[in-house]
UniProtKB/TrEMBL annotation:
Transmembrane annotation, as ranges: 70-88, 94-112, 124-144
Alphabetical keyword list: Membrane, Transmembrane, Transmembrane helix
Protein name: DUF3017 domain-containing protein
Keyword presence, Protein transport: no
Region feature (Disordered): 1-64
Pfam families, sorted: DUF3017
Biased amino acid composition, Basic and acidic residues: 23-35
InterPro entries xref list: DUF3017
Amino acid sequence: MSAERKAPDAPEAPAAEETPEDVTVRDAPDAEGAPRRATRRFPLFTRDTARPEGGGRAAPGDAPAPARQWPILAVLLTVGLGLLLTALDVFRVGLLVIGAALVAGAVLRWVVPDVGMLAVRSRFTDIVTYGGLGLVIVLLALMMQPEPLLRFPWLQDMLHFTVDS
């Protein structure tokens, strides 16, 4: 067995190859037994999912867990309050609180550099998803019957055009 192991489909290595002394092992070797690199640079070929930007802790590591994850906790507690209001038959207010919590999550994802577990994908995807869902929930809560606070006349015409014959 040789000291140098290559993956079967691995591309050719650059001319200046690293010697085993240059590579530091993190915890354990990879599946083929080769040592893993301890570098923070992205590899040439991605083999795993990268952490989303902003996915670091929102507070130092020695802080208690709730303080490290305050952005997601703020959004979840506000959504919980909205669900409680909805369960207590205050539908419109509860849905407005839920929608506002998602819009606030989008704003937090945009403004705060490290939001912890609120970061799911890329910053752009999170902002569009949280903001879009929050805006849709707020609009539906404002259009909810009876006595909607927001009316779209063309929506009634479209409904009659598609349903009535």
